[in-house]
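Input.
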Amino acid sequence: MMCAGCTGSRAERGVALLMVLGLVIFLSIIALSFSESQRLSSQMSANVLGVTRAQAAADGAVHKMLYEMSRPRQSDTQTEEQRWKPNGLAYEWSENGVAVSVSARSEAAKIDVNFAAEALLKNLFVSAGVEDGEADSIVAAIRDWTDADNLKRPNGAEIDDYRAAGKKVLPSNDFFVAVEELQNVMGMTPQRYLAVAPFLTVHSRSAGIDPQTATLEMLLKVPNLDPSQAADWVATRDAAIRDNLQPPPLPFSSPFFSTGIGAVRIRAEATTADGLSAVRDATVRIGTQPGARPQFYLWQRGSPRKTEPAPAVPGNNG
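Output.
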């Protein structure tokens, strides 16, 4: 015969067991959560460290590019040919487990919004899908923005026009200091700006572009150039650059060809073995006098390329 006390004791032990099991499960869940949190924290720290390493490598590559381009010229032809040049060619190497690629291109390969011939500037907007008359108005408004007076050009825009349109940013009657300022010009829409901004600069101080360093896409913005002829020549030029040979002479001419005054755009990309990457974009003017310090106009983080990279050559770590 089972006693009532024994039954109660067993029930209490069963409840106690359930409570212990529940506590164990609860503590296990907390331990797993803590472990996962620690794992994620460690991974985040590793990612931050990896990105920092990549960014440091990209920043160093910009300065290496500057050093290589600024080396004193040599009388030895072979040594001189090995000088790194601002022609868009990518120089690549690996250091401490980080793959690095850096290239430079003269800012004269773009259209200077402050100094460009009006016909060249207009053709850029027309090529972006802006109607002829609207392109004339935008160019006139750009010139009204940068000239020192408040006299309105035909189809242009001066301060009173911006006030009447409720614009918060008024013309400065001075040069643009950054391409981004172009977004404030009368007639400029976000779509138009995004279409033309990649082809513009404020650093070449040139009325035209330098065909020796311009991309094919940039050359096709020049009025009256034969696209097929330009494409053939650029392909031949780029092949010569990759082979470290003298580029062929231009088979065509244009009043919109000219050179700038030494500003270059440098782009450096670095990727760790874990696939973490960083990009540094810089615009700098290289001094022409011995010992002159480079003058930086832009120093910003960029985004990895979504298109095929420029033809590359192995870099050297010397």
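The first strand starts at residue 90 and ends at 95.
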